[in-house]
């Protein structure tokens, strides 16, 4: 026989790991990530599912003659938040999967 006890033990470990992964995924989804542009002129808040929840723009940067500058600040804040989500996923879930999967 091929060690039924070992197989049973391994299956328990796999189930436990799956539960831990699901708990981590739920925690990530419930977390808010706020990206910042320099001097906090733009703040972009996402949940862990990468859904934009809030976008705050400081009125001082609103300039009809510099729409590109405001667009750049929005991009910086959005990308900052998305990078935070990615880093948190790697930190929390990286132990359960091959590198780069999350």
UniProtKB/TrEMBL annotation:
<feature type="region of interest" description="Disordered">
    <location>
        <begin position="1"/>
        <end position="23"/>
    </location>
</feature>
<dbReference type="GO" id="GO:0043590">
    <property type="term" value="C:bacterial nucleoid"/>
</dbReference>
<dbReference type="InterPro" id="IPR036894">
    <property type="entry name" value="YbaB-like_sf"/>
</dbReference>
<dbReference type="Pfam" id="PF02575">
    <property type="entry name" value="YbaB_DNA_bd"/>
</dbReference>
<comment type="subunit">
    <text>Homodimer.</text>
</comment>
<dbReference type="GO" id="GO:0005829">
    <property type="term" value="C:cytosol"/>
</dbReference>
<keyword id="KW-0963">Cytoplasm</keyword>
<keyword id="KW-0238">DNA-binding</keyword>
<protein>
    <recommendedName>
        <fullName>Nucleoid-associated protein ab3b_00505</fullName>
    </recommendedName>
</protein>
<comment type="function">
    <text>Binds to DNA and alters its conformation. May be involved in regulation of gene expression, nucleoid organization and DNA protection.</text>
</comment>
<comment type="similarity">
    <text>Belongs to the YbaB/EbfC family.</text>
</comment>
<dbReference type="InterPro" id="IPR004401">
    <property type="entry name" value="YbaB/EbfC"/>
</dbReference>
<feature type="compositionally biased region" description="Low complexity">
    <location>
        <begin position="1"/>
        <end position="12"/>
    </location>
</feature>
<dbReference type="GO" id="GO:0003677">
    <property type="term" value="F:DNA binding"/>
</dbReference>
